[in-house]
Amino acid sequence: MSVELMIAIFITLVGASTPILLAALGELVVEKSGVLNLGVEGMMLTGAVVGFAVTYNTGSPWLGILAAGFAGAAASLIFGFLTLSLSSNQVATGLALTIFGTGFSALFGQPYTGKPLQLFKSIFPVELATHPFLKVIFGYSPLVYFSLFMVFAVWWFLQKTRAGLILRAVGESDLSAHSIGYSVIGVRYAAVAFGGAMAGIGGVCFPLLLTPQWVERLTSGRGWIALALVVFAAWRPFRLLAGAYLFGLIATMELYAKAAGGPFRIIPSEVWASLPYLATILVLVLISLRRDGSASAPACLGRPFVPSN
Amino acid sequence: MTKFTRRTMLKIGGAAATLPLIGSRAFAQKDKVRAAFVLIGTPDDNGWNFGHDQGRLAMIEAIGADKVETTVVTNVAEGPDSERVFRELAQQGHDIIYATSFGFGDYAHKVAKQFPEVKFEWATGNSTAPNLSLYNAKFHEGRAVIGTVAGMMTKTNIGAYIGSFPIPEVRMGINAFQIAARKVNPDFVTKVVYVDSWFDPAKEADAARALIDQGVDVITQHTDGPAALQVAEERGIVGGFGQGADMSAFAPNAHLTAIIDNWAPHYTKSVQSVLDGTWAESSVWDGIASGEVMIGDYNAKVPADVVAAADAVKNAIADGSLHPFAGPISDNQGTVRVEEGDIIDDGEFWGVDWYAEGVEA
Amino acid sequence: MLYRLEKRQVPSRTMLYVTPVLAVLVTMVLGAIIFSAIGFDGPAAVREIFFTPLTNHYKWQDLTVKAAPLIIIGVGLSIGYRANVWNIGAEGQYVIGGLAATGVALATHDMSGWWILPLMALAGAAGGMAYASIPAYLRTKFSVNEILTTLMLTYVSVQVLNYLIFGPWKSPTSFGQPQTVLFNADQTLPYIIPGTIVQMGAPIAIIVALIAWLAMGRSLFGFQIRTVGSAPHAARYAGFSAKQTVWLALLISGGLAGFAGMLEVAGPFGRMVPQFPTNYGFTAIIVAFLGRLNPIGVVLAGIVLAITFVGGEVAQTTIGLPNAAVGIFQAMMLFLLLAGDILVRYRLKRVITKPATGAA
User: Fold this and answer.
1) Would you say the pTM of this structure is higher than 0.85?
2) Which of C134, C145, C282 to mutate to test the interface with A (most CBs of A within 10 A)?
3) Is the pLDDT of residue A263 over 80?
């Protein structure tokens, strides 16, 4: 395999991974605060269609990304209000959000089906962005650099800031955090909104980074992979990055191997398609076998917070 | 992948709704026909469903809006849900119902049995009933034309074909493309990538990237939608082809030409026969000759000699002097599958489970 | 004048039953307003989606076909949810159950006899149970969260389905299309009312719900499920095993989902096709909640959801409403129900605002 081909594969896999990475980063923060939002797919679709519409109408992908973030956050706040203010069941509310997002995006997106768009390409000088070797550094959409920055930012926030410490405390022991005087609900609202914004931006990666069009259910279930990925990464941002690129590598290598021909089909494609899910289950088991608990799920995950005032 | 909602939209076309014509006898002459079209997607998909909807519109134009009234139901899932839609339409008094996807067949048959006076037509289907006919188009004839274009225009001699799943129609499309390309370019090969999903535009786009990164410079796809063409445009390769409809809006430079599904002649004939009371159980499989399959406009960058060669293939298929599957044909393992002077006829077509020489799958 | 939420001493039983009805009613009103605001005929949309399916005997048949699997799966899920076991992968257990029944059908395709259908039903339930036992094992042995494992396994089940019908189970007479052979008469559910499309699924769904209702309300088993779910500490004192409850909850919900898969493949589908996963497993989660995790409530909720599906199609044929609207209506209904839950635990109390006396 030539270096050029390896670079090409890498660029494709980074593109395929980025929407999942962004959405999963958001969900990671949400889960760290003790909330499980299964509405990622719905928020991604909402972000994708709103981001497409704004980009199409204004010509500015920057505005499109911004709008996608806001749309995702707005959708997530429906979930936030129900689960946090009204302490409804998180599983049911999250699923309802996905149904809502799927329906909303299909309805809202009708006028945009069959309309072409431009991909949001590298903003570096074209000599760098298309250079046979340097493009491995410069040849990506701004969304890719943004996702990498956010991996670092989320890690820094969770590990190095006081606010991050509070968020983790809220996720590990809501009652203690509450008794010290932190606003459990406030922190979780912020986390849920952040998660929604990131899912929305993850969604808009579809028309801006992968395939510049809008059709119903454009994300084809990537939101569920993002949910799996958070668990696969054991709730750690840099593992999330590695996990996202590993998932991307599996999906991309399958296509490159098929294109190359040869005896690839010995392994049925159904096995490849099942791998991310089976790997996630395996990781869950491995996590549970670790005795130090450092990699386990946030203790309050999925539990509504009811202060016993 | 799981989808949570299925959108089923219905439009009333033609004249304003009239009272249901319940109880009309089959094979009687009619003043006005109510025709229903059941689609698996939406007409704005730029592909399969778009083609059927265009055919419907052209049919109304030809028959006259005072003689036909149409109903379109879109995004109908291929399963028991479609049975409900068929029954609803039959009950509403439609005279003829078009089931435009393979997976509708079982359910169209069930409802056809319950409503013997209503006529059904099943696109791409494989079994008839006294009030259920089949219609299909020989898209592989179009594949032979674009294969000629691909074979002549490629610089790398590597073409590609993106499909969803390996079903016979897709396989024969690949064979027609490759056989035609080899005739004009003995070094031509076709790389095949199945995305193993019924619907995943992002994966189709990545498949196109994987193919182009490995030297492919002409790409064609058997999936609805422009995802692969858009990648061809972005990468600036020689080009690709619209599938089902003209897709040049998505790829002004890469769009070389398109295979256009033209159901207008069939729908016009079929509705007319209902009007005349002459509709009968049949199985129609037309192609370029009768206009079911059309080749779109050529991109300005396609050289005149290529256009001439492609048109020659098209005309020869139309007048019957050329058959896309005329022997000698060898498969990609080196076995001779069709002897010189033989052809794969319509009956053998659906049983083919091999790829032609030069196909890498 | 302000209203304040005040916690009730005991959850209100009235509100428990009133809120689902309220949720449906408010959905109709809000839906009519929203869809009018975006340019559709809102009141007509509500009429066509919620009422027209009830006015036509043909539509009644459709409702039974659509509601039966939702009820059967929903009953199983509601039992699990009562025990705080969150099986959200009923869709996967439904697929595997359907596949297991298909396996029996293919193995017995040249045979005939009354015993074939019961055998298929057994296989379907066993298939669903076996698939649900994976998360049960992982939860009880490794404390692995069943929400995540059941969801992951749903996606794997679709790949199993694809593998089988594109490979070993593909019909030799289907012109290469990915589907199995058509089941023969002894492998297909009979119609229970001649001249209709009402199959065995509908009465079976009612029977399943009744059994579950009796079991949950009147047996030690029901007591165990409810206690483990609502008061884990008390359950431990009572000697109920939490692990055993997890197993029971997953086996029951998985078994019923698998059984529903058999009823679908042997009923409306009549053969296994790639389009078999129809989201019944996910929609049944809504049904379970809308039905208040009560088997009788699940029956009503299943019918309500079936009405929206069938009515959604009517609304398109008559007023051109996009089917995406159905999803929005369903989501709204669930949002409102979940929001209404607060009224079960809290009451609205009027408080007289005191005049502000200086800065706080």
Assistant:
1) yes
2) C145
3) no
